[in-house]
Amino acid sequence: MDRLRQIEMLVRVVEAGSFTRAAAALRVTPSAVSHGIAELEVRLRVRLFHRTTRQLRLTPEGEAAYRRARGIVDGLDAMDGAAATPAHPGTRLEGTLRVGAAIPISRCVVAPRLAPFLCRHPGLRVELLVQNEAQEMHAGGMDLLLRVGPLADSRLVARRMARLRFVACAAPAYLEAAGTPAGPDDLPRHACLVHKPPFAVKPWDEWTFERGGERRRVAVPAALVTDDREALLAAALAGAGVVRVGMFDPGLLASGALRRVLPDWSCPGGPALHALYRRTAEPVPKVAAFLDFFAAALVEFDPEGLTLTPVRR
């Protein structure tokens, strides 16, 4: 097997955390990945992994080999980027750009504004994939990840693109039936719909409100807890209760389908939205072009800043 292919397999296995996920990303069988790693171990004369039925862990020699292998893969990515650098402003970008994003970002921000970007770069093929984890980015060979939430992988460049604004809201039908909260202290008497994002340790059932110099933290009763943001909004739209959520749907407020509660109060603490990509010696032109497009798309998506605050550069 080709040595570079074995090196890529090592990187994918480490970053995916398993032979099976690495094989899926590389579009080969798990046995092919296992065979490639075994050949690399013979070539290097070291054992790369401690293998058990429950865990795949690098040996000290494997750690050193992985660091060198990651450098080689990064170098190849940089070479691809340099090869694609336009020689003059009229040169087209070529190849495939793989972008991972959570469904709300993909559906609400990126896809509705993608047509002009594709027209500007007809030689570029965009693969827009439902992903939100850095590990999946590595395993899937993605160029860029648009992620909401905390960051854990320092090997990647993290460019903050926006901060989500929490909004407390409910359907008009719910407010007509249950009444409108006059202040944060009224919320414990209401049905509340609580988000527990996949990255959160516990449900977000403590809501903070600010007004002027006043700050209130309220523990709300959870009529519903879910990690499915779309289900949370569907329940709110159906009149199930009050929801506090980082929204990618300003149209729900503008249309009146959801109505803000406690409009005199703000909800601090919304999570940040970052674009994650690999460190390379020179910027990869297709990544740089997409970042410019995405920054503009965020401003166009919510020009009044109802649901997020873009980082302006």
Automatic annotation (TrEMBL):
Residues 1-59 form the HTH lysR-type domain. InterPro entries: LysR-type_TF_proteobact-type, LysR_HTH_N, LysR_subst-bd, WH-like_DNA-bd_sf, WH_DNA-bd_sf. One of its GO terms (molecular function) is DNA binding. CDD domains: PBP2_CrgA_like. Keywords: DNA-binding, Transcription, Transcription regulation. Pfam families: HTH_1, LysR_substrate. Belongs to the LysR transcriptional regulatory family. This is LysR family transcriptional regulator. It comes from Siccirubricoccus deserti.
